[in-house]
Amino acid sequence: xxxxxxxxxxxxxxxxxxxxxxxxxxxxxxxxxxxxxxxxxxxxxxxxxxxxxxxxxxxxxxxxxxxxxxxxxxxxxxxxxxxxxxxxxxxxxxxxxxxxxxxxxxxxxxxxxxxxxxxxxxxxxxxxxxxxxxxxxxxxxxxxxxxxxxxxxxxxxxxxxxxxxxxxxxxxxxxxxxxxxxxxxxxxxxxxxxxxxxxxxxxxxxxxxxxxxxxxxxxxxxxxxxxxxxxxxxxxxxxxxxxxxxxxxxxxxxxxxxxxxxxxxxxxxxxxxxxxxxxxxxxxxxxxxxxxxxxxxxxxxxxxxxxxxxxxxxxxxxxxxxxxxxxxxxxxxxxxxxxxxxxxxxxxxxxxxxxxxxxxxxxxxxxxxxxxxxxxxxxxxxxxxxxxxxxxxxxxxxxxxxxxxxxxxxxxxxxxxxxxxxxxxxxxxxxxxxxxxxxxxxxx
Amino acid sequence: xxxxxxxxxxxxxxxxxxxxxxxxxxxxxxxxxxxxxxxxxxxxxxxxxxxxxxxxxxxxxxxxxxxxxxxxxxxxxxxxxxxxxxxxxxxxxxxxxxxxxxxxxxxxxxxxxxxxxxxxxxxxxxxxxxxxxxxxxxxxxxxxxxxxxxxxxxxxxxxxxxxxxxxxxxxxxxxxxxxxxxxxxxxxxxxxxxxxxxxxxxxxxxxxxxxxxxxxxxxxxxxxxxxxxxxxxxxxxxxxxxxxxxxxxxxxxxxxxxxxxxxxxxxxxxxxxxxxxxxxxxxxxxxxxxxxxxxxxxxxxxxxxxxxxxxxxxxxxxxxxxxxxxxxxxxxxxxxxxxxxxxxxxxxxxxxxxxxxxxxxxxxxxxxxxxxxxxxxxxxxxxxxxxxxxxxxxxxxxxxxxxxxxxxxxxxxxxxxxxxxxxxxxxxxxxxxxxxxxxxxxxxxxxxxxxxxxxxxxxx
Lengths: 444, 460
Hints:
The complex is a heterodimer of chains A (444) and B (460).
Chain A (H helix, E strand, L loop, with lengths): L1 H8 L2 H6 L4 H45 L4 E10 L2 H4 L7 H6 L2 H12 L6 H8 L4 H14 L7 E7 L2 H8 L15 H12 L3 E5 L1 H5 L12 H32 L4 H13 L4 H15 L7 H25 L3 H9 L4 H30 L2 H5 L20 H9 L4 H32 L4
Antiparallel strand pairs in A: 1-2, 1-3
Chain B lengths: L2 H26 L11 H38 L2 H4 L3 H15 L10 H39 L6 H41 L2 H6 L3 E2 L14 E2 L2 H32 L2 H16 L2 H23 L8 H25 L3 H9 L4 H30 L2 H6 L17 H9 L8 H35 L1
Antiparallel strand pairs in B: 1-2
């Protein structure tokens, strides 16, 4: 302590002459060192904040772009179901009614609503407000369900076209000069007039959840892709879970510690880090070309994804098996159980929660995987909902990829919405895994 | 009989086999299980295995070979003139026959020969499935009878069943090896066919990449150019940018989490990083193309230089964000594995926490961290969707991150999505690129895993 007093009292000259003691050196550098300490800690915090910020931006862009796809703009048209157009012979046969010209009726209704529109070009724009394909479908269903409506005037809600929909939802700004915007001033005026007449409504977009893919953004849905993903994951689960658990059990409980086992282990660890696209190449060369399996089938996709997730399941399974204490095994062996009985009656049931957690996480990864599916032809444009494991299908992430490639503005919204659905599935699966872990995990 | 009905029948037979085996065993000792060698259930499993497994195996083999055999029979039934057509034409005709047979639309008017062939084909398939059902069920019943006849109190049923279980376990652990072998051979086989057309030297050292082959031989670029160096350059550039983002952020985050963060922060932040790690890459790709790339483009425009809308920068930065959790979780593990005594020693000498981290813990953890970073690089190289959606297709030889570049994975995707002809260099080139990708990531992984394991052993 006395040193401090001296050095503080003595002036500059003293210090300059005398060599600093180490305590002084430490003290004089303390301020700098503490500053460095704070800086270093701040770097760490800012790194975390950066990651967090990116997550936030990502989620807010996706949700901001996508939430509006869950609702859709619909127009109410009072269509006169003209018997002469729909059913000239008056038979009311479903075949005749099914093939009638509903598009013409809708166009006529629109013309009647806006009699001031005369030029061909303007008429085409007017028809463009409605999704003709969707409106025709709605009208046909209505008539086929109740043929007695023919001849009457009915009010039907029909989906608006994607551009009109984007404008109503505010994704196309009205402030942009007309020539830089996809919707002209006249179209806006028509839409405003419809809105003023209470003929415009945004309603829940059921078609998005129940429909297949479509070239028209307003008609495109994710149900086909969801079913495809579900079929594929079923195959993946049925293959990778039993195979993964069996190999984990063998490697952990039975395998002799020798060169061969070591090779298998190294191999599994490496397989876990092989780029996913390489598995796609394997599927293409072996499953499609060599075994002649059908292209775009959930069966093939499921097998490829199963091979990809297998290492994850094996690694998780082994970790779960190692965490079961040896005393359990010894007790079972001690009362006369065979090695196989010990493992299957005692060790494996205790390890099951860990195994299942690992498998669910593996499944979640498989659900989000896109690249290998591109290789085996699951990128095709498929409208029908797949009904079996060999039907052509696509998957949710691939649907995201396909829609992201489409130029229409409305597909940005649809893509984001599909991502929201995909993320919802992933979050559910991961939450399930966490719940399983917390509920059943035992600390020995 | 459809295949699923067959499977269900087989399953029912197997269950019946189980109960028959068990009751037979009990009957053989007149209801006193203690006189049996094994528990009664094992006799049931014994019969069930004999009933189900051989039948299922034959069904599987049948399914694999049926298409080839049917095809062969169909071809021999066709008129001579058709049989001698070129393989592609023949495949087209067979395809048409199949379409007619399933009631679909053929690419040409169906002539009587085709119609007859289609009927023949349908007949073959029907006979085939009936024959398969008959063979499989006969085998199942035979197995059941055989297994049942073997049952006696002395039969070592448990040992037999356990032997079978062990066989299953070994077989499933071989699947992983088979997958690797499958990958290596399928890539090698197609690559060798590629290198018949294009010399390996040109592929590895050529500076021009334009795989689109022209239709006519006299057009410019009729052969296509397969110099992959621009792809390597693009891959390395994007991976480098990604690591520039991921390495510092991931490492600092890991250090903070391992050394500074109070327990509550750790618990809150870990799931966030896990979410970042669990987001599918296609979502990152969309994010890069929709948000990040236009953002950089606007910044570039306001600063007065042109950034292409599919820049290496945007793809690289987003890929870096994707890899952050990967780097941070490995580094976190590695840093926590550094023994506590080293920290205490350094702190006891009066070092501040950051000095301890920088001068003691970091050097001690360095091998593990390097291993983790190598793993991260291998992921960046193999990552596909982000670059497919955000990096573009132009094979530019450039180190300028503001321009569009292309990568190995992007080229594999573009070459293989859409029509494939397995005799053109264009399609085969994808496999050569895949082989290269596989080898590079394999080497990186092996080196990284060895380093990480060595490091772990050092402190255990």
